[in-house]
Amino acid sequence: MGLPIYSLDHDDKQLMTEIYGHEYTYADMLNIPLLIHAGDSTAPQTLEQVGGEVDIMPTAAGLLGISLENNLVFGQDLLSQTYNLLPERYYLPSGSFISSSGLLIPGNSFEDNTQYPIYNGKAPAATEDEYNRALRLLQLSHSYITQLPDKPIEP
């Protein structure tokens, strides 16, 4: 997360508008670049890919040629896919998500949502299916966390 939008005063918001050329939004707050330096790369690349912290380990494993086939992994290798769905729970209301479609923040349901473009100012077009999938991923994540042992299991 970048500069928290909810902690900015009026002067800060004005400054952010000057910097971005538009009003600073939740999408701007959550749009943080990931830089990867791979020693064997021959030319720099810029990929406009949606990803989150959960995707760093699978991406690093892919770069290193490590298989995650028999492991439970919630993230994706950012270099081998073109679509990602990232449910948000901590910084935004539960049910919010980021995808290639944009940032969606629900109200009481999908129908009264607010959407923001993630990059290039493209109009967001998040779907109800994405919203339902994001809720399901949050349920799976919560279920996994609550089933972890309180203490390490001794061999």
Please name the defining characteristics of this protein.
155 residues; 10% strand; alpha+beta; 4 strands
Q: In words, what does this structure look like?
A:
The chain has 155 residues and is of the alpha+beta class. The chain has a domain at 51-82. It has helices at residues 10-20, 26-30, 56-64, 128-147, and strands spanning 85-88, 96-99, 102-105, 114-116. It has a four-stranded antiparallel β-sheet, with helices on one face. The chain is globular, with a radius of gyration of 18 Å. The termini are far apart. The relative contact order is 0.12.
Question: Helix and strand layout, with pairings?
Answer:
Elements lengths: L9 H11 L5 H5 L25 H9 L20 E4 L7 E4 L2 E4 L8 E3 L11 H20 L8
Antiparallel strand pairs: 1-2, 2-3, 3-4
Compact summary:
The protein is 29% helix and 10% strand. By secondary structure, it is α+β, with helices and mostly antiparallel strands. It has a domain at 51-82.
**Proportion in β-strands:** 5-15%
The first-to-last residue Cα distance is: 38 Å
User: Major sheet: order of its strands?
Assistant: 1-2-3-4
Biggest beta-sheet profile:
4 strands, antiparallel
Mean pLDDT, all residues: 86
The total beta strand count reads 4
SSE topology string: HHHEEEEH
Please tell me what the overall shape is.
globular
Low-confidence stretches: none
Structural class: alpha+beta
Radius of gyration: 18 Å
* Tally of helical segments: 4
The helicity comes to: 25-40%
